[in-house]
Amino acid sequence: MITKLLFLAIIVGCALPTADAQTTTINFNDARPGPLPDGWLGGVTGNGEAKWEIVADDSAPSRPNVLKQSGQATFVWAVKTDAKLKDGFIEAKIKAIAGNEDQGAGIVWRWQDANNYYVVRANALEGNVVLYKTVNGKRSSLPVKGRMFGYGVDADFPKGRWSTLRVDFSGNLFAVTFNGKRLFEVEDDTFKEAGAVGLWTKADSVMLFDDFTFGVR
User: Fold this and answer.
1) Coil vs helix vs strand at 114
2) Buried (b) or exposed (e) across 9-19, using 16+ Cβ within 10 A?
3) CB 127 within 8 A of CB 155
4) 110, CA 20 to 30 Å: which among 4, 60, 130, 167?
């Protein structure tokens, strides 16, 4: 009976609970191509416009659909308004398509509003992964735990290929994993309360997202 229910859940697809009842994976397959589905809010930090849309993509880890962001703004975000976590994790498949100024894709947690949240992003042009806090609309990078200087951690994020970005957060400790490798940890006490979780891009980045997973650990 369990096997049959799991099979049916995979066929229906989009908001799919995994074996952990507190974990949800969204693969955008139960929504028609078009704007953000119900339960999502999109916007910007700074200036510009967001353009989030569900599109079909043959390369999607969970075919047929992905979420695409092709608008241009200082920072662009989309959050699940009905999913607010204090401690837990987020994971997403990300793919860089284009961008002359930037090619950054990230995941957001403890999002309070358009100007206040945490984000960790991978950048295909810079070849690194960096964790930031955005406070009153101003973004600043946070230092890697155990290291006095530096800007994030170098990591290969090849354009045109899918990668997996993950952050585990508990209290003031955040652990970042990229393509299955634990990269670094950060400690920060700015946002202590639960907040929305979501996705993020910067400037003229054109990015694809799939298998957005979040939950409590």
Assistant:
1) coil
2) eeeebbbbeee
3) yes
4) 60
**What would the two tokens of residue 149 be?**
């200087």
Q: What are the φ/ψ torsions at residue 10 (nearest 5 degrees)?
A: -65, -40
* CA-based end-to-end distance of the chain: 27
The neighbour count for residue 105, using CB atoms within 10 Å, is: 29
CB neighbours of 10 closer than 8 A, spacing ≥ 6? 16
Q: How far apart are CA 213 and CA 179, in angstroms?
A: 14
Model confidence pLDDT, tens digit, residues 102-158: 999 999 999 999 999 999 999 999 999 999 999 999 999 999 999 877 789 999 999
- In this structure, the number of other CB atoms found within 10 A of the CB of residue 100 comes to 9
CA 190 from chain centre, in angstroms, equals 20
Whether the per-residue pLDDT at 211 is higher than 90: the answer is yes
Q: How far is CA 50 from the centre of its chain?
A: 15
Residue 75 backbone zone (phi > 0: left; psi -120 to 50: alpha; other: beta): beta
